[in-house]
Amino acid sequence: MYFKIQILMFHTFVLLRLGENKRFSVETKEVVKLTEEGRTQYNLIQQRTNIPQYGLCWKSSVVFLHEGCRRLTEDSQIDIALRFTDCFLKMSGHKPYECEKHSVREGCIKSMSDRAFNAFTEFYTHVYNICFFLQSQIWHEETEKTIDRLSTSSAHVTEQLEEAEVVQRTLLQQQRESMSVQQELLTNGLSLSEILHVSQDNLNAIMKEFHTSTLEQKRILFEVFDRLTSLQAWAIGEISWFDTIMFYVSSIIVSYVVTATPRTQEARIWIFLIITVNAVIERIVVRQFLQDDVEHLNETLYWWISQCRKVMLTVCVVWIGVTIYQYCDYNAVNHQLLIQIQKQNMEVIHYLEKMRVTDNDPTPKLTLENKLLEVNDAPLLEPAELAEEINMLPRMKMCVKSKSPTPTLSLVSRNTSRSDAYIEKRQSSRSLVEIQTPGVRYSLRSKRGTPSSIGKETV
Length: 459
Known about the structure:
Blueprint: H1 2-21, H2 29-48, H3 55-70, H4 74-91, H5 105-110, H6 114-258, H7 268-290, H8 297-326, H9 330-358, E1 365-367, E2 372-374, H10 383-389, H11 393-402, H12 409-426, E3 435-437, E4 440-442
Antiparallel strand pairs: 1-2, 3-4
Helix pairs in contact: 1-6, 2-6, 3-4, 3-6, 4-6, 6-7, 7-8, 9-11, 9-12
């Protein structure tokens, strides 16, 4: 509200100063005289605008007069006087010069007649008086309007000042009340400040205690984390140890089952040795990783263990495959050899029977410790028992490796004939039939009684 009052007073002061600086605002006798003359001339021109025939020219000149008086200069004053001169010459029946349209206005003015030039001079003087009158009229009108506005504003300001006085009184009363309230607030603030200081001291003590307890808790947590880390390492070691035991027990069982066949039996010891070496390597890897940082222990440890086990399984599978590929079944080979020997024995016995028949002996017999036995009473040994009695198994292996030729029927026949010739010449009580084969010597023995007497019996 005070700001509005100051603005109104400032506007009033500015308008008064502008009125004092106006060019035509000095109230002197000359000013009054100029104003009266200007009013007379202006009224005369206004009357001439009502003439039916030439009123339009005077009206346009009056309009030009109002526009020119706003910015009155030497050129604009000449232009206005020339316009009024042309209108006056037209009204008096003379030809107008219209010098305001010429580019060279001085020459046009010099070429005027005396009557036209006198009219121009008179109008040139009257233009100044008329403009002075018009400006004074405008200034008076603006001044009156300003005064009216100032009066209205003053009345309004007076009302506002009265209202402001009431408001100020109310404010003063309220300020007094607020002062008492502020005094109470100040007292309460002081007491509150003391309470806050005490609370701050207590809070600082609590914060220090909290900081101390936090440090202690931090130390305890670090110890717990260290113990948890150690426990984790121990648990991982125990779990890995249990997993290792289960894995290698299963591996040993599977290896034993896989190598239970004769074809893979020779690889059993080597597979057990590979499993043992891999178990030792795995424990070394576990112990090495348990000493390092346990942040990524599980992933790294299990990766290395899996790689070691994959390598072990690969080596075992390759070794079993090589063993299967290199396997040779000597029992089957010996069985084939014994079958061939049995066939040869049958051929020899059959040949002896034929010899006995050709010697007019209806019952072919064989000698057994100076005793004659019938051929039917002398059973043949089984091929396996025969080979065991005469210790033939090592010799037959040697024969297989050296690829010795199998004794043929013709060779057996020749040896048999030699034996018969020897029996006939000696005529001894003890008859021996020997069959020689390259690198092998064996006897055909009959089996009677107990198996212990077989080594003493000779056919």
